[in-house]
Amino acid sequence: MKVLLLGAKGMLGSEIAMCLKSSFNVIPYGKEELDITNEFLTRNKIKEISPEIVINTAAYTDVEGCERNSEHAFKVNAHGVKNIAESCREFGSKIVHISTDYIFDGTKKPPYDEDDQPNPLNVYGKSKLEGENFIKKTCENFLIIRSEWLYGMRGRNFVSFVIDTAAKENKLKIVNDQVGSPTYTKDLSEAIRALLKKDCKGIYNAANSGKCSWYEFARKIKEFKKIRTEILPIASDESNRVAKRPANSVLNCNKLKTNTGFVFRNWTEALKEFLESA
User: Fold this and answer.
1) pTM of the prediction?
2) Which among 60, 102, 112, 124 is annotated as catalytic?
3) Is the pLDDT of residue 156 over 90?
4) Which single residue of 28, 94, 148, 160 has CA 20 to 30 Å from 154?
């Protein structure tokens, strides 16, 4: 089965490419090969390749950057997705799109289900939600996968931030009032493979099990890497960030488990493996 993978050079895209190569004919495209904001090029490339599946991991994920440049955020995360969705509908490809926990406002105490009402707090979440809505309006054959707090081998992420900053600073202040599930891109890629093999459609949550605050996440990185830098907890309003973040963005992944049999391991186990292999 031919799979066109967009955003293939990014942190998640590169991991998906490695994970799927033994099961699918993966055709990887980075931004240099295909800019999804270019409607003409996107349509022509999907027509030329004629893939059964198009996986979109391309996104503008800088949450603070989205607040400063909302036009670019919506251009990539919403209208770029619209370009892909329209081409997939026209040429009969299934669209698989990676979305985010940030479409929720974080006021729900239990984990979020797939059918909970979105209410994003920041431009990033709003732009990603608009991308989801374009897909639902345009395509019948779609799979939207919502994940959260991603880290992996490539690109900047929270794990690399903690390690790099700890090497230069004596103290590190980390927010302690936002809770989520840190998710290893390797594990997420395996869940995506399970969803593809079962030809699942609709919306699915996908994240490592368990939960923690960003502060607890940082403390676990410190423990596993034997970092000496002091890590201190702070409240969100002390963090000097413009974009609001949800207080709780834990996702319920029972639907994925029921329909595929795939079970995510605990985030601490995944993190330990990642840090040992990095």
Assistant:
1) 0.96
2) 124
3) no
4) 94
